[in-house]
Amino acid sequence: MTHLVDLRKKPYNLDDKAIAWVEETIANMTLDEKIGQLFVNMGSSRSEEYLTQVMEDYKFAAVRYAPGLAADIWEQNYILQTKSKIPILIAANTESGGNGAVTDGTKIGDEVKIAATNDPRYAYELGRIAGIEASAVGCNASFAPIMDLSRNWRNPIIANRTWGAEVEQVITLSKEYMRGIMENGIIPFAKHFPGDGIDERDHHLSFAPNPMSKSEWMETFGRIYVEMIEAGLPGIMAGHIHLPNVEKEMHPERDLDDMLPASLNKTLLDELLRGELGYNGAIVTDASHMVGMTASLPRRELLPTAIESGCDLFLFFNDPDEDVKWMKEGYENGLLSDERLHDALRRTLGLKAKLGLHTYEGRREEMMLPKEEALALIGTDEAKEISNQVADKAITLVKNKQKNLLPVTPERYKRILLVEVEGYKGGFGALINQGKKRASDALKELLEARGHEVSIWENTEERIKKLPEEERPAAIQNVYASKRPISEITDHYDLIINLVDVNSGGTTQRIIWPAAKGTPDQPFYVHEVPTVVVSVQHPFALADMPQVGTYINAYDSLPNTISSLVEKLSGDSEFTGVSSVDPYCGLIDTKIWHSTEMGR
User: Fold this and answer.
1) Is 588 exposed, middle or buried (0-12, 13-18, 19+ CB in 10 A)?
2) Given 286, 323, 544, 556, which residue is catalytic?
């Protein structure tokens, strides 16, 4: 059976007038309008001409746009809401703050950083600030919070984007985030059902199943979703994640070949989520360009299958003409039932009614705050102060086994060498970060202001790339043939700080060491020069440098984070962060420090 929505019940709680609007709106739709209302558009322009044209052509229900300046986003959303026939859901990815809605918004911190403050108040503040800044420019939905469990340190997608590894903490912080953002008129779509963070692959690029048994899943992810549903969670994003062992227990007659990811799987969405867990809200697919979805079925089939399986909104067109045609064909040939089509429309329109969008007919411009008033809510001193507090409280001293290494003062360590440690450099991340101030430059400035002499090491590969092409082969050969005195390091530096800046962007989230031998590129010198490692992105860098005795997770390289880091290194501030994940990565050697006093 298909579980149909009850708009009078949680999370909608609609009155008769609102339900009448939902039903009358559906009754007055053409088939093309009904099909259009299944889609979430990703716009390629903010111009009025483009926005009005695509709304007329494709009649979509919702938008998820790329962030821009608040002034531009306000204009975009004003056009969308005043020119659309039916009010639009306008979503952003406010996972870490208002910066997910507008580029001049406030980043409070990724979820793992918020969790490291060890204070649920900051999860609420994250939601609240994100809600204030997003709603100011006309957003009314967000694809957050992330409720995955960080149980595999090799996972490249949610390493710093999830609250942590423990069920209770994820529940507590997700509820607080939801409370903060819903207070400000934003519908949260929690993700990624049925649960990421167990497999080490990226469902943007590959299948990435969750291998849990049903009892394991019910005690972990199932419990998280049950608690959030009970708390009134209005939206869920279905990930392109298989749940094969759970599905096999529910349907022993099925083979693995019969099983699809959750975004295309009626058993997982209708029987499990809506049936056993009692979810009555709306479901959006994760992005439909991801290989976890596109490699599962021909696109002509996966479009109607996603809706028939229980999704109410389909995230992003590929080619809009093609996608709309195929969704309509799927309805006409029975792949998408009339019952499921109309249930999806009720759930989506129900969210719009829950937000009160139906009450603005004839005065749509009043949905938006006046522009000047809206822009005054972006990047306020209050929001920046919350971000500063999180930066101060979150930084975590994970490993501190070198006796008396801290504090870092000019009297103890006059000459400091900063060594940048990086990962995959390709992809869009490299293009986006071009020209941005590096964490090492910011750290250098702050340390020099305190009286240190600071150098930044140019890694061996980068140096060789600058040589004339004909000289490079000999230089590379020399890397492996040459040896150099340790005194080249010990005579010149009193302290070395390895700054690990490795973020997602490839199939793996690991340090990629440059070709080098005897240079500071890799921290072989931990017993030659006092050495500190600081990760300014993902919290699992210790796996690739277990030999170090002092390791710190800063979680990001925001200016206030680097400033707080320097205060803590110097002893002016205490380390108070508490890791919500296993920074030792379940490995034995990451906890070891070979003291120089051994064997004496």
Assistant:
1) exposed
2) 286
